[in-house]
Design brief:
- There is one protein chain.
- This protein is of the alpha/beta class.
- It has three domains: 124 residues, Rossmann fold, CATH 3.40.50; 54 residues, ATP-grasp fold, A domain (Dna Ligase, domain 1); 123 residues, D-amino Acid Aminotransferase, Chain A, domain 1 (2-Layer Sandwich).
- The protein is 32% helix and 25% strand.
- The strands form three sheets. The chain has a six-stranded antiparallel β-sheet. Strands 3-2-1-4-5 form a five-stranded parallel β-sheet, sandwiched between helices.
- Helix 5 packs antiparallel against helix 7.
- 43% of the residues are buried.
């Protein structure tokens, strides 16, 4: 733990500060992992708890919680190893065991697979991890596997291949191509190449894929699946402006085509649970093709939440053993305009 950590956060981590209580309300303790900057997600759960009359205690963890805005906004924060560390799952389990955590909400791709594999270990201590099955996580985590999955199930998607395969069959492709890390996220490492020479110049220190370049209007569709794996809600929004891979300006859209694609994906996915999303490009002719699936809360979830698709409410209801009040009656044409905010930590 950093010796420069703000005293208030140090006390939280040590368990010295009292946590929030609201009297005789039902209590739920939840943990947001790899909390980072996901303050809006945390606040969504707080708003849902208030609406349900739940006494919600929110824990958060991260590699460096002293530098995480969401960890500062949580009731208590914990430092944990990296998600790819062999001790990561055990550290999260210990937090849950010691604090009576009922619900764990992961937020980044690298932690999904280890948490999915350990879901039975969490269930044994009374904790539900809001994560889909390991097979689904594996498909979503690998952009080539995602493309294969979509093609197998007749869901429209761009042509995709490992970068070496595209380079060896250059004449069969329509250029330019989009090149991206097979396991990337948030726009990391994405670039456009205009010919095979540029493709061969791409420095590769991890698996990359080449993908047919799509043009048009980009959309994300947020989906909620209940514990039985049934899709209960699908909310498309158009990504008007993007920064660092996340929507900065967006608007909810009702689209029969995107809702049909959501149903097709939902029917094909193995063991979906909780919040998922997929990304689509829709061209000027109205044809849509899916190019990514995320097995977690998407960065644009706060727009769906404000539109009335309160996934956080439905997860809390399930944590209490209730039937989720999930519905598809969300507001169309709701606009989200994001801006930067700050968390200040004093001496």
């Amino acid at each position: 733990m950093s010796v420069n950590m703000p005293p208030r956060l140090a006390e939280q981590i040590a368990g010295a500060l009292p946590t929030r209580r609201t009297g005789g309300a039902s209590r739920v303790a939840m943990l947001i992992t790899s909390a980072g900057r996901r303050v809006e997600l945390l606040l969504s759960f707080r708003a849902s708890a208030a609406a349900l009359g739940i006494d919600l205690e929110i824990f958060a963890c991260d590699l460096r919680p002293e530098w995480s805005p969401a960890c500062h906004e949580a009731d208590r924060a914990f430092a944990v190893p990296r998600a790819d560390d062999s001790g990561y799952v055990d550290a999260v389990l210990e937090i849950c065991r010691e604090n009576g955590v009922t619900l764990v909400v992961p937020t980044i791709d690298p932690e999904l697979h280890p948490l999915a594999l350990a879901s039975d270990r969490f269930a044994a201590i009374g904790t539900t991890v809001s994560v889909s099955g390991a097979r689904l996580v594996g498909i979503a985590r690998d952009k080539f596997l995602t493309a294969e999955f979509l093609a197998t199930h007749g869901i429209p998607a761009p042509r995709t291949a490992p970068i070496a395969v595209a380079a060896s069959s250059a004449s069969d492709w329509k250029w330019p191509l989009l090149v991206k890390p097979a396991h990337g996220s948030s726009g990391r490492g994405v670039r456009i190449v205009h010919n095979v020479a540029e493709l061969r110049e791409v420095e590769i220190d991890e698996p990359f894929v080449a993908q047919e370049l799509l043009r048009g209007r980009e959309h994300t569709v947020n989906m909620f699946f209940d514990r039985a794996g049934q899709m209960r809600c699908a909310v498309p929004h158009e990504r008007i402006q993007i920064r660092a891979g996340e929507v900065e300006k967006g608007v909810t859209r009702r689209s029969p085509q995107l809702e049909r694609i959501a149903r097709d994906i939902a029917a094909a996915l193995p063991e979906p649970r909780g919040a998922l999303c997929f990304q689509v490009m829709m061209d000027d002719a109205g044809d849509a093709r899916v190019f990514e699936i995320n097995a977690r809360f998407g960065g644009g979830y706060p727009l769906a939440h404000r539109a009335g698709a309160t996934f956080s409410t439905w997860l809390l209801e399930e944590a209490l053993g209730r039937t989720p009040s999930a519905h598809d009656r969300w507001l169309e044409n709701l606009i989200m305009l994001r801006y930067d905010a700050a968390v200040f930590v004093g001496p």
